TrEMBL record:
Cross-referenced SUPFAM superfamilies: Family A G protein-coupled receptor-like
Organism of origin: Rattus norvegicus (Rat)
Protein's UniProt name: Olfactory receptor
Residues making up the signal peptide according to the UniProt record: none
Membrane-spanning segments: 25-49, 61-87, 99-120, 140-158, 192-225, 237-261
């Protein structure tokens, strides 16, 4: 498409989940409730971990940072989505849309790395308990946390950099509840054949690396647990990993569906529904 034949877009309109007034009210109340619970729950986790000396361990330190990332993730998306339910189409400037995408990718990627770090922490705790204090020292933990945030920023730069190289002219209605990369590609009047692939490669590489770390960690954990003679010891080891493994399965399943699978394999409606799970719920 020739950008010269169209007016340059300066703002986007988020169409949201629905135009039905009744559903908008119901969704507003429902997702506002989820957002409040998310904020209160994660803030409570952070305060509890930082105020309780007994919780000053690597596992709970990672958990507190995961809670912080979850707050940032939800806050990047939910307030704008709630506004969309009230005004039936939230309006964002192009720069605000870019900032939202950058924020979502930063926190989302950081969560991937933190989940991998937590899996490694559980591996060391269960498979090499005598070396735990050495392998999971405060310096190593801070390094893992710092690397998680840096990795998030680098991946966000990849997405945002590609977005900045796109031109938008003509249509400005995004069929989504936040400025996700895939819906924005559909509105661009630039050639997206290469730019559309780069973020998928970046996100896919991060998913492969972090899933590999998690998978290897849990394989060794499972082998160690099966070698335990104590039933109580097995139960305790399993219980420490169950919640983390559940979070990993749900989170990686949704982001793989959105950012790695071919865009032609799912509809925009499916995109929105799956996105709800990893951004809001």
């Amino acid at each position: 498409m020739d950008p010269g034949n169209h007016t340059t877009v300066t703002e986007f309109i988020l169409l949201g989940l629905t135009n039905d007034p009744t559903l908008c009210v119901m969704f507003f109340v429902f997702f506002l409730g989820i957002y409040i619970v998310t904020l209160l729950g994660n803030i409570s986790i952070i305060n509890l971990v930082r105020s309780c000396p007994q919780l000053q361990t690597p596992m709970y330190m990672f958990l507190s940072h995961l809670a912080f990332v979850d707050i940032g993730y939800s806050t990047s998306v939910t307030p704008i989505m709630l506004i969309g339910f009230i005004v039936h189409g939230a309006v964002l400037s192009v720069h605000a849309c870019e900032a939202q995408l950058c924020s979502v990718v930063t926190f989302g990627t950081a969560e991937c790395f933190l989940l991998a770090a937590m899996a490694y922490d559980r591996y060391v705790a269960i498979c090499s308990p005598l070396l735990y204090s050495t392998h999971m020292s405060s310096q190593i933990c801070l390094l893992l946390v710092g690397a998680s945030y840096v990795g998030g920023c680098i991946n966000a730069w990849t997405f945002t950099g590609c977005l900045l190289n796109l031109s938008f002219c003509g249509a400005n209605q995004i069929d989504h509840f936040f400025c996700d990369f895939s819906p924005l590609l559909k509105l661009s009047c630039s050639d997206v054949s290469i730019i559309g692939i780069i973020p998928s490669i970046s996100a896919g590489s991060i998913i492969v690396v972090t899933v590999f770390v998690i998978a290897v960690s849990y394989i060794y954990i499972l082998i160690t647990i099966l070698k335990m003679h104590s039933t109580e010891g097995r139960h305790k080891a399993f219980s420490t990993c169950t919640s983390h493994l559940t979070a990993v399965t749900l989170y990686y399943g949704t982001i793989t569906f959105i950012y790695v699978m071919p865009k032609s394999s799912y509809s925009t409606k499916q995109n929105r529904i799956v996105s709800l799970f990893y951004t809001v719920v």
